[in-house]
Amino acid sequence: AQSVAQPEDQVNVAEGNPLTVKCTYSVSGNPYLFWYVQYPNRGLQFLLKYITGDNLVKGSYGFEAEFNKSQTSFHLKKPSALVSDSALYFCAVRDSLSGNTPLVFGKGTRLSVIA
Amino acid sequence: DAEITQSPRHKITETGRQVTLACHQTWNHNNMFWYRQDLGHGLRLIHYSYGVQDTNKGEVSDGYSVSRSNTEDLPLTLESAASSQTSVYFCASSDSYGLDDTDTQYFGPGTRLTVL
After folding, report:
1. Nearest to B73 by CA among B16, B112, B17, B27
2. Is residue A23 within 8 Å of A5, Cβ to Cβ?
3. Which comes out higher in pLDDT, residue A48 or B1?
């Protein structure tokens, strides 16, 4: 079975400071990991994904995420937060051994960047 | 440009009525998904389809049905709307497994449904 957890409902950070949004996962095989962002009254937008290869994945809008197999984590990071980064962020996972099962999404973390 | 659209964007209905939410994608994706989003629950999968005539139940499928008669559309039907189905509904699509863009889902703008 596959699952994903986002341990923080809310993250607050000052503009210009680095930000981290946490995600941990549980799978039987290898994980396919994703980050999505949702702005108010919009659908989810794809940010980045890890399938295989380099543990540091770079995505849209200056975001990056680091895959850590030993800690089963895939935290989203950005070196310098912008007020416009304020949104709801979702982590998602699929197990390579799960066949054709869909992605499983976390409950989301609301990021507030304060000017 | 390819896109995924949902209609209506807002809907108010009464308990017991049948409601159909439309989802249309021009990505030519085989896979389509319906989710509901509620505070405290994140995104929960309702139904999904991996191709024409294929449908599968998700985590919260009771009271909902889908049918896939072509690649572009996956309408979601609430057979007899209940107040517990008041939510924001999102449709998504993705390419077939095994290709470069596998698993990346593209989401529609959502439908806000209120059941009174």
Report:
1. B27
2. yes
3. A48
Burial string for B37-58 (b: 16+ CB within 10 Å, else e) reads beeeebbbbbbbbbeeeebeeb
Strand, coil or helix: B39: coil
Q: Which two tokens stand for residue A13?
A: 């950070």
Rg over CA atoms, chain B: 14
What's chain A's Rg over C-alpha atoms? Answer: 14
Higher per-residue pLDDT: B101 or A29: A29
- pLDDT tens digit string along B51-60? 999 999 999 9
Which B residues, 52 through 91, put their C-beta within 8 Å of a C-beta on chain A? 58, 90
Q: Are residues A107 and B110, on separate chains, in Cβ contact within 8 Å?
A: no
| Among B75, B107, B113, B79, residue whose Cα is nearest residue B4 | B107
Q: pLDDT at residue B105 above 60?
A: yes
The pLDDT of residue A88:
96
Query: For residue B101, what pLDDT band results from cuts at 50, 70 and 90?
Result: low
Residue A98: the pLDDT is 76
Instruction: Note whether B41 contacts A44, CB cutoff 8 Å.
Output: no
